[in-house]
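--- STAGE predict ---
source: upstream dedup step, 1 unique chain passed
mode: sequence only
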Amino acid sequence: MNNYKDFCVYDFSDYAEEITELLTHSLFIIEEKSTNSISTLSYNGTVLLPFSKGAWGLNTETDVSSYESFKDGSNDYDMRLIYSANKINPEMTAKNIIQSIDSRTTYFMIDHLCDIIGKENCNTAFFNTIVLK
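--- STAGE serialize ---
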């Protein structure tokens, strides 16, 4: 990130077809103002298991397709804007994400329902890194 002022950061959550806490997925949408390009960023398990290594994923297929569905109006994943760009501090949020990448946190699929220290999922990683203005 050359200059955080060149970027807008948005938070979206999607709820798949059933609105349940278990199926909620949180992600960042990063828009570069000068090029109008969009990237997605979210924390995921590296293997589809309840416990696994975790990693921040940039432009994952599911995140990109969810966002494209939202933008084209079909909104197949019931994606919702949680925080708009003017509510998020992009510089501090980016610093927190970098710290999260450098930590030894691992993935736990339902961490947002039963918080375990040293574990994260897409929702808890998101809320533990976002900084609001």
